[in-house]
# Entry
Amino acid sequence: MMNNKEIPDFRFTPTIDKVGVEERVARIQTKSIKGESKVQGMKMILNMIDLTTLEGKDTPGKVKQMCYKAQHLHSQYPDCPTVAAVCVYPSMVKIAKDALGNSNIKVASVSTAFPSGQAPMEVKLMDTRFAVEQGADEVDMVISRGKFLAGDYNFVYDEIAAIKDACGPARLKVILETGELVTLDNVRKASEIAMHAGADFIKTSTGKIQPAATMQVTYVMLMAIKDFHARTGKMIGMKPAGGISTSKLALHYLWMVKETLGDEWLSNEWFRFGASSLANDVLMQLMKSKEGVYQSSDYFSID
# Structure
């Protein structure tokens, strides 16, 4: 863990022009994507989804069903891509890993007392190490929002850095829970802290509170990534999560990534959607483009 002298002074980060952000997002939302570009975009979206189940009632059977769906999104669409990853609780990581076998689909695990983050550091480290030992390829941690809002930015930094160390070879996604950060200025500041502390991805939300992901907070985070890359040369991934349920909205997110960061970020190595319900809507749209009619929702599994 770095000592305080090596930690950047996070009291002074760029302030956000809220009106400017809203105008930029409004312009992106007028973009119309049609034809083959739309089909290519929707296939890209499918391949960027982290298919997720994070419920207290999760069972091994439910996780196995989700893993099957992750590998076989639609039986009538043989060239349909798979999703990027499945995301589960640490106790379900081994079940997911076994169910996915030799597929290229990653297993992501939440950790650090998800979703509240209200646990001692020792518990958060054990949570993370257990997930990695069980086979997690990626770890989605939550920051301590209470500490952040109290202005204890060094605590938040040190905690992320310690969890990054505990991840070993697993990639770390840092969840800011932007709906609790109140302002876009705070979103920018939290993004800076996470990236400097070692995040491989920054992620908007747990999906457990509202508002979850919005285009406005995602744009602010993308700009933070752009500026960080310009300063350091290091690429950081982005994951909006929660509330993205239609292909039309997801396509607008993709366009925003393309305009802000460039084509290099348009892969599941650097951009993800945390939105399980999105997969079915994209599949329905793809089948419409292929068959000319919408299929009934009965053709698509819930999980």
Strands lie at 50-52, 85-88, 106-110, 138-142, 171-175, 201-203, 237-239. The mean pLDDT is 92.
